[in-house]
Backbone:
C-alpha cells in the first residue's frame, strides 16, 4: 500500500505542474495520520472498480473493463474506489436536480455483501474511501489541466475549485462524512 500511495504522490507531483492543491496535500497528510496498522492482505487490484466499467448480458456481468490502474493492493482499495465513485456520480446527479440512486452502493451493504462473498472482513474502509477521493481529486486536476492546454478553460484563483467532490473530501477529512 505504501508503494501505491507513493506512486500516486509522484503522479500528483507531475499533474499539479507547479500548482498547490491544498485539499490534496491535506488528504495525503490525513492518510499518513490514519495509516492502518493492518492494511489487509495484498491481492490483485482492478484499480478502476465501478459499475460503469462492467458490461452486462442482462443482469450477468459479461466483461470487466478499464484495467489501466490494476496492481497489487489490499482489498479495500477496490471497494473504497467503487463506493466513492458512486458517491461522486450521485452528487453530480443531485446537482443536476435528478434523483439518481442514493441508496445504491451504500457502504454498509457493499461491505456486508463483499465480506459474505469473499469470506473475509474488510478493515479500514474509511481509509480506502479517503484514498479513493484523493486519487480522484488528482484525476480531476489532470482533466482540468488538459482542458486548459486545449484552450477550453483557465485555472481558477483557487485551484481546488476543479475538484468537484471537494465538499465530500472535506467532510471525510474533518470526520463528518461517515457520521
Residues:
Amino acid at each position: 500500500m505504501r508503494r501505491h500511495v507513493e506512486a500516486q504522490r509522484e503522479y500528483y507531483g507531475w499533474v499539479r505542474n507547479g500548482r498547490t492543491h491544498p485539499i490534496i496535500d491535506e488528504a495525503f497528510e490525513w492518510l499518513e495520520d490514519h495509516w492502518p496498522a493492518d492494511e489487509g492482505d495484498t491481492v490483485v487490484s482492478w484499480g478502476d472498480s465501478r459499475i460503469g466499467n462492467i458490461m452486462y448480458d442482462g443482469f450477468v456481468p459479461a466483461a470487466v473493463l478499464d484495467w489501466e490502474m490494476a496492481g497489487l493492493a489490499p482489498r479495500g482499495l477496490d471497494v473504497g474506489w467503487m463506493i466513492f465513485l458512486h458517491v461522486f456520480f450521485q452528487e453530480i446527479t443531485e446537482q443536476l436536480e435528478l434523483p439518481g440512486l442514493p441508496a445504491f452502493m451504500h457502504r454498509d451493504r457493499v461491505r456486508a455483501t463483499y465480506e459474505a462473498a469473499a469470506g473475509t472482513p474488510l478493515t479500514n474502509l474509511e481509509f480506502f474511501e479517503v484514498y479513493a477521493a484523493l486519487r480522484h481529486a488528482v484525476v480531476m486536476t489532470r482533466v482540468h489541466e488538459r482542458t486548459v492546454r486545449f484552450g477550453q478553460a483557465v485555472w481558477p484563483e483557487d485551484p481546488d475549485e476543479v475538484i468537484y467532490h471537494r465538499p465530500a473530501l472535506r467532510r471525510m477529512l474533518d470526520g463528518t462524512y461517515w457520521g
Remarks:
- Strands lie at 42-45, 54-57, 60-64, 71-74.
- Residues 147 and 153 are 6 Å apart (CA to CA).
- The first strand starts at residue 42 and ends at 45.
- Residues 2-174 form a domain with the Aminoglycoside 3'-phosphotransferase; Chain: A, domain 2 fold (CATH 3.90.1200.10).
